[in-house]
Specification:
Shape: flat
Mean pLDDT: 81
Structural class: alpha/beta
Distance between the termini: 31 Å
Number of helices: 18
CATH architecture of the largest domain: Alpha Horseshoe
Number of domains: 2
């Protein structure tokens, strides 16, 4: 469990601090990039530069999807896919509306990269959604493909009718779960490590906004020749698509744990510094990774972005259980800029050093002062989940849902 949390907070910081690292001369906000990115709107193909593809891979979790073995996704020419959502009298009316709205959210967010039409008969559908109680009450929804040879014949999502206490599902939790299961059904078979992405496998289902990282990963998946799809691609369609190795080779550094000498690689841009940092971290060469991250921090022109990079380094050292180095980097992050993310660092250090009671006290203090700090809520939920304090966990989820609603 702890390893998941570590990656979560590491990449969460990275997603915020490092998303806009492709250009130092013309920084963009994540919102601007999301609305104006040609790559996200139309997908990626061989007409685009290697630099564009490389930046997308860095700012996505495509490698997690690729590591699952096969690319399973729909033929783009067959969109809109037909979707059946069960109209069941056994569940509240809003269940069906929430799931349908999640499909519409993916369609709008992707600017038509994926699209759907709803049908009333399950036999006419490519994607089918049902509401039925399962033995697994820890997950609101589950997804599975039906595959015959190398062909997708159907996609099925099953949502539990009730939660673990036999209560009706909260609409936000159902919506978040639906976004994630639809993502799986579209081909996002690997999970994100960022707590902000809808494809992050968090049991509390906080995420209701499809992020730029989610969309870049989806666009990359649909730029790949699929191993399994619903209709064969034409020769013309295939000629514009990449293989997985061609996408990963744009990084210009190894993406697996091999014996290549990374010390001979001289980083000329931020993306390469990030890729090297990731590789050194995988090899447990943490000081070298920290040096590469620090090079990224030096490119930042605002205090908050700098602090988020040092936050990332601190969490890397926590992962390695090098607590003195972690504390030093945490102090730099906090001194550089105090914000919702860095405010949680002392509690995060206590959590990793098995002082969860102290961590809980600090987080509750933070939330009294700032009831909208979602980082504090998420770490607090992680602690309660680890301790199996279901009542406190559910109460914290409800508090977060309330404040998130007020903020919106």
């Amino acid at each position: 469990m702890k390893k998941i949390v570590i990656c979560t907070f590491l990449i969460a910081a990275g997603a915020v601090a490092l998303l806009n690292t492709c250009s130092n001369t013309q920084p963009q906000t994540a919102e601007f990039a999301l609305k104006n990115s040609y790559a996200i709107t139309l997908g990626y193909d061989k007409s685009m530069s290697e630099k564009t593809i490389k930046a997308a891979v860095i700012d996505s979790y495509f490698r997690n999807v690729a590591s699952s073995g096969k690319i399973i996704r729909w033929n783009k020419s067959t969109f809109p896919l037909r979707v059946y959502v069960q109209d069941s009298a056994d569940v509240p009316e809003y269940y069906r509306e929430v799931v349908m709205s999640a499909y519409q959210k993916w369609q709008r967010a992707s600017n038509g990269l994926v699209s759907f039409e709803f049908v009333e008969n399950a036999n006419d559908a490519d994607m089918r959604c049902y509401f039925k109680n399962t033995d697994n009450k820890k997950s609101i929804g589950t997804h599975s493909f039906t595959i015959n040879g190398n062909k997708i014949t159907a996609s099925t999502i099953v949502f539990n009718k009730t939660d673990a206490r036999n209560h009706s599902l909260d609409s936000k939790q159902l919506f978040s779960s639906a976004l994630q299961e639809i993502g799986h059904s579209l081909g996002l078979t690997g999970a994100s490590n960022s707590i902000y992405d809808v494809m992050y496998p968090i049991g509390t289902k906080f995420n209701t906004e499809i992020t730029a990282r989610d969309l870049k990963t989806l666009a990359l998946v649909y730029s790949i020749k699929p191993d399994v799809t619903n209709e064969p691609l034409t020769a013309t369609e295939q000629s514009q698509l990449f293989t997985v190795s061609e996408i990963l080779n744009t990084l210009n550094v190894p993406v697996t744990n091999d014996t290549k000498n990374l010390d001979g690689i001289v980083a000329q841009d931020v993306s390469t510094h990030l890729a090297l940092a990731e590789q050194y971290r995988r090899r447990a060469e943490y000081d070298k990774a920290a040096k590469e991250y620090q090079a990224v921090a030096q490119t930042k022109t605002d205090r908050r972005s700098k602090s988020e990079v040092y936050y990332e380094i601190a969490v890397m050292y926590l992962d390695a259980e090098e607590f003195d180095n972690a504390k030093s980097c945490a102090e730099i992050a906090i001194a550089t800029d105090e914000n919702d993310l860095t405010d949680t660092l002392p509690a995060l250090i206590d959590y990793y050093t098995k002082r969860s009671n102290s961590a809980t006290d600090q987080l509750e203090t933070i939330l009294k002062q700032n009831p909208y700090n979602k980082h504090a809520y998420k770490l607090l939920c992680q602690i309660y989940r680890d301790k199996h304090h279901e009542n406190l966990l559910n109460a914290t989820i409800r508090r977060y849902a309330k404040t998130a609603g007020e903020e919106e």
